[in-house]
Amino acid sequence: MYRTQILLRPEQHKLLTEIASQEKRSLSEIIREMIDKQVAARQQKALAAAAQALLIDYQTDAELTAFQALDGDDFDA
Fold first, then answer.
1. Higher pLDDT, 73 or 19
2. What contacts 65, CB < 8 A, 6 or more positions away?
3. Which pLDDT score is estimated for 72?
């Protein structure tokens, strides 16, 4: 892990400290969890935007859907 210093507003620190105390976890653990959730949400948003950007091509480019007819076929047959 990397040690990183951040500055929190007093109300942020108070709320995070209360959460950590209630959950019997460290302040660092609470902050890491929140960061992980925010990063995952941003990655999901980026993936959704990329999928949306590719949707027109997928709907209009026959080469991208040429093998769609094979979906569900048994390849061992």
1. 19
2. 58
3. 66
